[in-house]
Amino acid sequence: MVDRDTSGADNELVHTCRHCGNGVEDSFRFCPWCAVPQRSKLVEFFAPHPGMPGDAGKALRVSRYFGSDERPPQLRFSIWSGESADAAVSLSEEEAARLAHFVAPPPARRPLFDQLRDTLRL
Predict the structure, then answer these.
(1) How far is residue 65's CA from residue 87's CA, in Å, rounded to a whole number?
(2) For 28-55, what is each residue's pLDDT tens digit?
């Protein structure tokens, strides 16, 4: 039997799901009972290109906000220098998907000879 109560001393690393009220371990991103995200946002930092000396000490921070009744889902990009953000912009889910497509590696090109052979049906 699983202890869904979050009030016991053995449940120090457990919080209550804001959606269904069951106990969820703090390390879980989603409630195992109702699948609702337990964090309002996820954050990841990306290092600058090592070959660009002018970008040393900077980072790209990407925050994914899951959305709520008050705020729609969004992705927020910010440029950090040291301990502060220099600029930030939020994108909708649709624009973020378009950005993901833009930055994805291009598909591998087939050799020209193979393309010609297929075109000429040789």
Answers:
(1) 18
(2) 888 999 998 887 888 999 999 999 999 9
Task: Tell me the torsion sign for CA atoms 28, 29, 34, 35.
Answer: negative
Exposure on the CB side of residue 6, measured as CA atoms within 13 A: 13
Residues 6+ apart with CB under 8 A from 38: 15, 17, 18, 24, 28, 29, 30, 31
CB 59 within 8 A of CB 45: yes
HEC readout, the chain: CCCCCCCCHHHCCEEECCCCCCEEECCCCECCCCCCECCCEEEEEECCCCCCHHHCCEEEEEEEECCCCCCCCEEEEEEEECCEEEEEEEECHHHHHHHHHHHCCCCCCCCHHHHHHHHHCC
pTM more than 0.85: no
Q: Which of 4-18, 83-97, 104-118 has the lowest mean pLDDT?
A: 4-18
Mean pLDDT on 69-93 = 92
